Amino acid sequence: MLDNLRVFHKILVIVGVLGLAIVALSTFSILSFQVLDEEMDLIAQSGQSTLLAARLNTNVQAMNAIQAVAAIDTTPTALQAAEEGLQTERKLFNQRLAKIRELNPDADSRVLIDAIAVKEEAFARSSTAVLAAARAGSEELVTLSRTSASAAAAAREAVRVFFKREEDRQAQTNREADEMARLRSILLVSSSAIVLIVGIGLGALIAQRGVSRPLRACVEEVHSLAKGDLSISIAGTERKDELGEVATALLTLRDQLRHNQELEAAAARENEAKIRRAILMGELVAEFNRTAKATLQDVSNASGELGQTSTALERDAQDTGTRATTVAAAANEAAVNVDTVAAAVEELSSSISEISRQVGHSIESSAQAVQAADRAASSVRILSKAAADISTVVGLITDIASQTNLLALNATIEAARAGEAGKGFAVVAGEVKTLANQTGRATEDITRQVEAVQAQTNDVVTALDEVIASIHGMEHVASQIAAAVEEQNAATHEIARNIEQAALGTGEVSANINGIQDAASRNGNGATQVRQSSERLTRVAETLRHAVEGFLTSIQRT
User: Fold this and answer.
1) In degrees to the nearest 10, what's the CA dihedral of 381, 386, 391, 396?
2) In the chain, where are the structural domains located?
3) Packing angle of the helix pair 107-136, 7-72 (nearest 10 deg)
4) With b meaning 16 or more CB within 10 Å and e meaning fewer, what string describes 190-199?
5) If you write DSSP's letter for every residue of 35-88 in order, what string do you get?
6) Which CATH number does 2-218 carry?
7) pTM above the 0.90 mark?
8) Which of 126, 207, 434, 481 could form an SS bridge with 148, CB 3.0 to 4.6 Å?
9) CATH 2.160.20 correct for 276-399+471-557
10) Average pLDDT over residues 499-522
């Protein structure tokens, strides 16, 4: 950074650094005085608290004395004066205690101040009790006076503890202030010495590195240039100060001297080069003559061979175009056939899908038929069970009819025994017997009908079981058919996909064949152009050979 500053600015930097050092010292001094001032405030605050604590003690002693006088002189006038004196002293006490609380907001002080307030309140209550006992002429006045004196002593003790703490704090603050003042004095003197040394050292450093050393280097470089040493490097050209300008001027001078030296050497080398060039020119002309003749002969031969090759390529290109046309026609026909097959396979796939749908519907119908047959078989079995129940009931009715017939027979016998009196009963017994016989015949008919129904029901159940078995077989066969149709459908889709790919392939083949036709056409045109170019190359080679011969002849004459 110093390299970019001019000498005047470097001097300003030195002055500025010293000025900043003075400002720093002044700031440090001001801060030190502020700290000392704060310490003095603490000392004053502690002294004020100590003074107030001493006055609190005086207030307590005064209140204790007033109370003692009131205990001795109990006249109304004395008691009134004592009460007013206590109020005055207590008011002063509370004001001073509030001031102490304001000056000492820390927690430790609050504890001591609260203790003083508690003791004073206890003393105030005992004083009030003493005055009341004095007015009443109570015998407990002496006891209350002693209690109040004890409370006053406790209050004075609390004040004494705070007073002692404030004295100790004030002494500690004084010691700390003295120590801080001594330390600040030492730091101020030390920092002043350090700043002075740093300022002098920094000024010397700036003068040495920014002025003296670069100037000495410039002088040495001037001596070297004067002795003719142009290989030296000029230092300090990147500097922005006056020494950088001197270094730039020296660099320009060295470069100019080098340039002059190079011009002299170049002139000497140019003369030598002209002599060598004249000798070399003769040798090169002879060599070029031989090489040019051989090269032109090779070009002529190559152009002839190129013409023959281009003619052959032209014939091959025509043959390739003819064959590509034939292949393109075949590829187009194959593409048409593939499209036809793809359409047929698509129709086959649609038919197989319809068959698959019909087979699925048949499977669903078979399943529904099986369910209906199962429901019918269940109903027929319920009917067979009902017929069996009817047979049981009919048997019960038959038994009842037999019993009724026996009862009617017994009634007829009893009526015969009764004689004339039992004729009416005999008629009833006959009717009952007739009804019993009719019931028996009816039950026999019902039994035959029920047995016939049971037989038919069993036949129906057997037939339904056979139908269900047949439907299950049909459902299994339909499932196999559906699976086969599904496989056939998948195979058809695969065939369709392959045919589609084949169609794409034939399209690509057609496109490639067309590309081959175009390439063959281009090859034919290219071969024609190559043949024509080879003919022109032969003519140009012959012309160039004559020109080279003329040029070499002219060179040799000169």
Assistant:
1) 150
2) 2-218, 276-399+471-557
3) 20
4) eeeeebeeeb
5) HHHHHHHHHHHHHHHHHHHHHHHHHHHHHHHHHHHHHH--SHHHHHHHHHHHHH
6) 1.20.120.1730
7) no
8) 126
9) no
10) 62
